[in-house]
Design brief:
The complex is a heterodimer of chains A (492) and B (230). Chain A has 492 residues and is mainly α. Chain A has 18 helices and no strands. Classes of the chains: A mainly alpha (492), B alpha+beta (230).
């Protein structure tokens, strides 16, 4: 398998000399309880969040739709949708993918199962309270940090528990060599712990004054999306690309270079959007400079993937996971390029405060992060449950629906955003006249949201049918165990 | 990469750097800020209790999802031409706000100076109840749940109006929200963001002429045509 002398793909070669390897199936089985819980609730949250998103985008067409229902007013449904999708789906599913990849690469079984399950429980409970809180009017008003104080506090406890378990598990790994995916995952755990606690402290518990709040908020939001979720997405791609194509990673030196430039710069890049804001000017300038430098990690990561893939694109298409990973990689590159372009002053003068920025975020969240997570999920779930997907064709269909949905959302929001930039940000036509066509174009994104929703229904159906089969199997074993001795005798 | 500890230290260093730059340094710079003598007293002037409660309604309704409260510097887009402010907004303007709802999407107009632009409470009540009443073609959602509808008859409270056979009466929340909207004004001249007229007044020779471009705070704006309402 290893024809080139470049560094090894995951699990191909063990650098550590002594320890006997644990079979992959055993590692997978050890991950089952918490991961099935994270993935299942993640999918449910994604569906709930997308339904909220649909409700919110319906007001594009009928502004007076929920005029009598304070719970469903856009200003509440939108942050509820974001929170459900980001914290319920993306972060939670990322926990699962992270733990599994770390176990597989470190060749260890997943430990601390009860703690991980309890943490998942706390996370979902706190998030439920928080989303209901937002619908009842408890949003904090901070972007991507809208969940009320009590919810963030509960989620922080859950996060800390998961992170401690993950890091301890990592520390006990048997395969000591580190693969790029592990750099990203370990760093991600740390970054999020730091920013989540700092943001909670500075925005909730010892609130700071004035626009300092917005600086902290921007720092937090960019760490959440552009570092923590992005890192997990990158780790998934770095893991699966060599694995599915059966080719070693092109260069781990290049990967290290990409990783460290990313680690040093990405947190600053999020400040670019404050560049014309009422904050000290140097903060915006740092952000603008950083977002320009982001081209370095972007190109080195993309080149590494491209050279790893070589002529094996076909192999990628044949697996269930492959297409998701492939599209995630492309979305990452396109989204990264958009972020860099939006960083330039000449461009941000137009794209500031428009749908174009929303387009960038949605691409990063749904085109890149969610795609990578789905790719991981479709690979991991059959292995940890030791069952096949009940409807493999629906996996393909899910991919097609999602790809089309993301494309529609991206293009409509980008189109609307650029138009908004010229007509509102730079133009002086009367506001209502200027925005009328823009709302229509942005409204097209609703069709994209519907496609996403359809894809999610397929994923949910597949997942819960699989769970149902698993529980039937368990019940059959249990009945055998109680009634028929010979079955037990045979299996023992 | 040789191992966990090295990786950990590297990541720690990068995070510490960003934390220092983006949190600690601004804390030192902005932490020293205090109210200043400007305009009629200490600026920013505090809000009334009612307006303060209105800020809470504004936050809880998520108006920030569609409205910004920040005017960009001169030369940056058409914020001035739209009459969204006479000067850019600066950190000083937000010193008393909690949370500071700068916003980052402009589906609706900027509201940093809505209190100066639209000082009529009646306008706001009707606009919130049904935006299209006041702004034909508006795509802003209606906030009818901030009003009470009851059949006409009896004395009409202040700020209420009659629609068909119903009286539309703003709830206390609506009153608070409108008080807050009227309090949104950042038109006090500050050293770091002077109003155009105070600039043109200072060197009289400049008045009415085109100042050289470059400085974002040049009085070039003084020659702008009077801003339209939106």
């Amino acid at each position: 398998m290893n024809v080139t002398p470049t560094p090894s793909p995951p699990e191909a070669v063990s650098a550590a000399p002594v320890l006997e390897r644990i079979p992959a199936s055993e590692i997978d089985a050890s991950c089952r309880p918490p991961l099935m819980f994270y993935f299942g609730s993640g999918l449910v949250w994604l569906f709930v969040g997308t339904v909220f998103w649909l409700i919110a985008s319906m007001t594009f067409y009928v502004p007076a739709l929920f005029a009598d229902t304070s719970w469903l007013t856009v200003g509440r449904v939108r942050p509820a949708a974001t929170s459900a999708i980001v914290y319920g789906f993306a972060v939670q599913t990322a926990f699962g993918a992270l733990l599994w990849i770390m176990c597989r690469l470190g060749n260890v079984r997943l430990l601390f199962l009860p703690a991980l399950c309890v943490a998942g429980f706390i996370w979902n409970l706190a998030l439920t309270a928080g989303v209901l809180g937002i619908l009842a009017g408890g949003s904090t008003g901070f972007e991507w940090f809208e969940l009320p104080k009590y919810a963030s506090a509960g989620m922080f406890v859950a996060y800390a528990l998961i992170a401690v378990c993950a890091v301890t598990n990592f520390h006990l790994r048997r395969d000591r060599a580190l693969f790029p995916s592990q750099w990203y995952l370990l760093a991600a755990l740390f970054w999020f712990a730091w920013t989540f606690s700092a943001a909670g402290l500075l925005l909730h518990f010892a609130p700071v004054r004035g626009v300092f709040q917005n600086i902290v908020n921007a720092w937090y939001a960019s760490t959440l999306l552009d570092m923590w979720l992005t890192s997990v997405g990158l780790a998934i791609i770095f893991y699966f690309l060599p694995k599915l194509t059966a080719r070693p990673l092109y260069s781990s030196t290049l990967a290290a270079f990409g990783f460290w430039t990313f680690a040093a710069v990405a947190q600053f890049a999020g400040m670019a959007r404050l560049s014309a804001g009422p904050v000290p000017a140097w903060i915006g300038s740092v952000g603008v400079a950083a977002s320009g430098i982001m081209v370095v990690p972007l190109i080195s990561v993309a080149a590494n993937w491209y050279l790893t893939l070589g002529d094996r694109a076909q192999a990628l298409k044949q697996s269930e996971t492959g297409p998701f990973v492939w599209l995630a990689a492309i979305s990452y590159v396109v989204g990264g390029a958009l972020q860099i372009i939006f960083g330039f002053r000449e461009v941000s003068e137009i794209t500031d405060f428009t749908y174009a920025e929303l387009a960038r975020t949605q691409l990063a969240l749904h085109g890149f992060v969610a795609m990578a997570l789905f790719g991981g999920l479709y690979y991991i779930v059959p292995r940890i449950s030791q069952l096949e997907w009940p409807a493999p064709r629906h996996v393909r269909l899910h991919f097609t629906l999602y790809a089309a949905g993301v494309a529609i959302i991206l293009l409509s929001l980008l189109g609307a955003g650029v138009m908004q930039g010229f007509r509102v940000n730079k133009g002086t036509v009367d506001f209502v006249t200027a925005t009328k066509p823009i709302a229509h174009i942005a409204g097209l994104s609703t069709f994209g949201v519907l496609l996403l929703l359809a894809g999610q229904v397929l994923a949910l159906k597949n997942f819960f049918t699989l769970c149902h089969r698993a529980s039937e199997q368990t019940r059959a074993y249990a009945i055998d165990f109680i009634t028929g001795r010979e079955t037990v005798g045979r299996s023992a | 990469m040789s191992g966990g500890p090295l990786l950990f230290l590297g990541v720690l260093a990068t995070t510490a750097l960003s934390f220092w730059t983006l949190v600690i340094a601004p804390a030192f710079q902005l932490g020293r800020q205090d109210l200043v003598e400007a305009g009629a007293g200490r600026y920013p002037t505090g809000r009334s209790g009612l307006a303060q409660r209105g800020a809470d309604v504004y936050r809880s309704m998520g108006c920030v999802e569609c409205h910004t409260q920040q005017v960009r510097p001169r030369g940056y887009g058409s914020d001035f031409a739209r009459g969204w402010g006479e000067r850019r907004t600066v950190a000083q303007d937000y010193l008393r706000d909690r949370p500071v709802l700068l916003g980052n999407l402009r589906i609706g107009p900027d509201l940093a100076n809505i209190g100066a632009r639209q000082p009529d409470p009646k306008w706001h009540f009707e606009h919130l109840y049904d935006p299209k009443r006041r702004v034909p073609g508006s795509t802003m959602p209606a906030y009818r749940f901030l009003f009470e509808r009851r059949s006409a008859g009896g004395g009409l409270p202040e700020d209420a109006w009659v629609e068909g056979e119903y009286e539309i009466i703003p709830t206390p929340e609506a009153h608070a929200l409108v008080a807050y909207l009227l309090s949104l004004q950042s038109q006090v001249s500050l050293p770091e963001a002077p109003l155009p007229q105070s600039l043109t007044n200072a060197p009289p020779a400049d008045a009415g002429t085109n100042a050289p471009a470059g400085d974002t705070n040049t009085p070039a704006a003084a020659t702008n045509p009077p801003a339209p309402a939106k």
